[in-house]
Predict the structure.
Amino acid sequence: MSARINLMTERIYVAADIGAGSGRVIAGRFDGSRLRFEETNRFENAQTPLPGGLHWDLVALYRNLLEGIRRAKALGAEPASVGVDTWGVDFALVDAAGRLCGLPHAYRDPRLDGVMDETCAKLGRRRIYDATGTQFMPINTLYQLVAEAKSPASQLGRAARFLMVPDLFDYWLSGVLSNEITIASTSQCLDVRTRDWSWDLLDAAGLPRRIFGELVRPGTVLGPIRGLEGYDTKVVAVGTHDTASAVAAIPVPKEGAWGCLSTGTWGLVGAEIPEPVFSDEAFADSWTNEVGVTGGIRFMKNLTGMWIYQELNRAWRAQGEEVPYDRMTEMAAKARPFVSFIDPDAPEFQRAGHMDEKIAAWCRRTGQPVPESKGAFARCALESMVLRYKELWGQLRRITGVKRDGLNMIGGATRNALHCRMTADALGVPVLCGPTEGACTGNVLVQMIALGDLKDLAEARELVRVSDPPIAYEPNRDTAAAWDSALARFSSIRVASLS
């Protein structure tokens, strides 16, 4: 790969990647041949209970974003551009003057209880899937908007525009109202066939058309940054869904068919495909078709990722014992394998607090041994997550008809070597891990393409391969039978728990 620009000094691009648990601002520093990253700000992102429900403090996040940009400039060069990606499904409403109509709700807000079931009963589950191709999750934007419409304090009446969370940050940074398509495709309000809003579905749900704006593609330059004096930095609408940015960063092998796994608080198993899938099995198992940064489809299934592992850590901290994550993993590695499993996607594990007690209660209810140590709890969480990967890996093969040669694994959980080794062993395929900061990397790559500094995504991925070679994990074939046996037990426990 050769640089498309002749650099006398390095060029800096700022990526803000804000997840459901934390955010980070990272400076991508390009010297003409390699890309390296330097974190300029890291901060917490907590869902805050208030009298009106569970909310995000987006103003605090925005302040941290600006601070990260300032620190990036202090590295020695003004950033050429900035892009923001975040978690999916959550949104804000702004009025005709561009002001927030209210503090945005968080997707775990109790007001969503039962709304998906009511909406599906009214509109038809298959009709919704055929209109959007989106997986069914109670937290989806569609059901949040329906809940907002039903609320006595609804802000829809005075709302002029609907903005997903990264769209709001892009608006605050640039002054331009836009709806970026990759984040819109998480909402269950987008028709992935036409790449436009699913107008008939929105009408049937009783949602006002006027609030949904024109969709823009990743790589759209929105304009110069505002709110920071003396900056000529461009604001770029990147793949504003963090998974879209992360998948864009995968240095896909040039040979074979590969799947992908994005890991963090949430996990997504799937593959890049050219067209959406609406088959009976995709519908029955609620696979999602989301738009990628080049317009193709990220065919994926959402699952609970490291959330349970993180919540175990928080539970022990609340009990007065600080257990660093690396120590948790050491204890998990020493614990006896395949003793007890949970369904990581079960509703009781989606709420914060007392995760060790919830796991213990699940094990008792399903007739399994209750973990007796912190290592056993951590191992139960990791193995259950990996077995869910294995279950979905089999579904992916059946639905797409493609046997995949390996897995590209990206995201923060690639730092956990035990987790990566388990995944390779369980799936029985080579696993390539990296980049760790997948979303930030993809975010920067789209900015570079938008500014003409890289030709296309193929060249961008080659830059990743050169700058941050992935770590390879080969499967231990001797453990295949044990993982297959564990999957049979895990699946039977899941099925029994749903009945």
